[in-house]
Amino acid sequence: ILNVEQSPQSLHVQEGDSTNFTCSFPSSNFYALHWYRWETAKSPEALFVMTLNGDEKKKGRISATLNTKEGYSYLYIKGSQPEDSATYLCARGSGNTGKLIFGQGTTLQVKP
Amino acid sequence: NAGVTQTPKFQVLKTGQSMTLQCAQDMNHEYMSWYRQDPGMGLRLIHYSVGAGITDQGEVPNGYNVSRSTTEDFPLRLLSAAPSQTSVYFCASSYRGMGYDEQFFGPGTRLTVL
Questions:
Q1: CA–CA separation, B94 vs A20, rounded Å?
Q2: B73-77, B91-95, B98-102: which has the highest mean pLDDT?
Q3: Which of A41, A107, B26, B98 has the most CB atoms less than 10 A away?
Q4: Which residues in chain A touch residue B102, judged by CB atoms under 8 angstroms apart?
């Protein structure tokens, strides 16, 4: 994998459903993996920054895991609510350049 | 703290015109960066700075210049605007390198080039 890739591109779920997204990234020269939440007409806001293989982070109903050896991260939302509707971005940071490269995002729509 | 501020919020240019997008932060962050957001492409890094006087290119630097004379300010200059530069531009900052710490984003500038 050369770039940061996210799947699916979009997702429609019912209120109360649990859901998860995938972020795949180059595993070489890995430094950190970021997740951001981006609501329409607003700016992206950070959810998690993870650096260690096996890291698990949680914020309310949202959690994330990290596998740096195989180059993927999962974001989970338990019991989705309409206010969770947003685009979720992941980004990979490399230690030698300091650059942060984003995936194209997963857009989640939660129907009441 | 105002956080990261960007001006203007909206701008319409004609092809060939130049302009500067302003970005300022009051959090004493060393790292600042510019992204553009295009449909279906997430955020793409244009230029970034690791401190005053130091800048480097990102993924899509062509047609843009930056400078960092102070810690607080990181303006983005469009030298000769082209329709392909129609986009939403976000400035961001972080305390340490972009791989280390979460980034704080400004509200964005929506630019249309006719």
A1: 27
A2: B73-77
A3: B98
A4: 34, 46, 49
